[in-house]
Design brief:
Phage tail protein beta-alpha-beta fold; globular; three-stranded mixed β-sheet; 13-stranded mixed β-sheet; Jelly Rolls; alpha+beta
């Protein structure tokens, strides 16, 4: 579970949060814990007080179960207890289960991790390709979190935040779903791109078909079928579909090659894109400067090439303040 992180705005239920907390605890006790795992856990805990509460409750239950597990050794030192070896394991498991039930409150089913769920995450500027046993693969862009449940019967991915490119091995008997907030994307033999921001969802289709609808199980909201070279944008309760020429889709996927391509893009939008990939942020102080438009191709992490272009093309001033670079007249 290396490089795990989480997103505070993800619409998880209390049971799902406790499932993730339990998965963290299980990984931490597996003996393969790394500094990256610890950093990712700290980030997950800091995203929401609900995460911290669930983790603390389950951690207490695990520690209590560990103490119970140590008792058979103590019991064996007492001759009066040595004659009862068969009943103790049963009592131990029962006591541990009761302790966990009391701490969780929501029941042991809500606490136990789902063994096939796994989280994949990238940091700012990160890029990762994940391949699955069914032949499908996903490519994670910067600052992205995906939780996956890939079994013989289920193929479900939750895009908690960020952007990912999907190449799905179609299997009509086992549909492939991507859940992104209030929306569910159903694969119909497909290559597609999904970007989830806090207030916006974008789905762009390259090959095949996808159906985009509500993630609610009993929703009666209509779904939308996308065809190749179409893109769907959802904001709030509104969804609309536009035609995306192949060259526009190629531009949107340029991050897979480590590039940002700007065509008649405002400096404000270009700066926002750079800020997705870099910890040093671009800040445009003048509204008029923000509306200037730029053409060009840049490496996602080469902020200085962009600021140099701003100086040379528009005669702008750039000031490096460490954590941010201010662009102004």
């Amino acid at each position: 579970m290396s490089d795990l992180t989480a997103y505070a705005m993800s619409p998880l239920s209390a049971a799902e949060i406790e499932t993730e907390a339990s998965a963290w605890l299980e990984q931490r006790s597996s003996g393969s814990w790394s500094e990256n795992d610890q950093a990712a856990l700290d980030a997950w805990l800091g995203q929401s007080p609900h995460h911290e509460v669930a983790y603390m409750r389950l951690s207490s239950a695990w520690r209590y179960a560990d103490r119970l597990a140590a008792l058979p050794h103590l019991m064996s030192e007492n001759p009066e207890n040595a004659a009862r070896p068969t009943i103790w394991p049963v009592l131990l498991r029962l006591a541990a289960a009761v302790a966990i039930l009391a701490l969780v409150g929501g029941g042991i089913v809500a606490m136990l991790p789902r063994p096939h769920d796994r989280t994949y995450a990238t940091g700012v500027g990160g890029h990762e390709v994940v391949s699955f046993a069914d032949g499908s693969k996903i490519e994670l862009n910067t600052d992205t979190v995906v939780r996956a449940r890939m079994t013989t019967n289920e193929r479900i991915l939750w895009l908690e935040k960020g952007e990912a490119y999907f190449e799905v091995k179609h299997d009509p008997a086992h549909p492939f779903y991507v859940v992104a907030g209030r929306h569910r994307i159903t694969d119909l033999g497909t290559k597609f791109l999904v970007r989830r921001d806090p207030d916006r969802l974008e789905v762009a289709l390259l090959e095949g078909r996808v159906r985009v609808g509500s993630s609610a199980e009993k929703s009666r909201s209509p779904s939308t079928l996308l065809m190749p070279d179409e893109a769907l944008t959802a904001t709030g309760s509104t969804m609309f579909v536009t035609r995306e020429p192949a060259n526009e889709l190629a531009k949107e996927l340029s991050w897979r090659r480590g590039l940002l391509i700007f065509k008649h893009t405002t400096l404000a939008d270009a700066a926002n894109e750079f800020n997705r990939y870099n910890r040093q942020k671009l800040l445009i102080a003048d509204p008029a400067v923000a509306q200037l438009r730029i053409y060009g191709t840049f490496q996602t992490t080469n902020v200085r090439a962009f600021t140099a272009a701003a100086r040379e093309i528009f005669g702008l001033h750039t000031q490096d303040d460490g954590d941010e670079i201010v662009i102004s007249r």
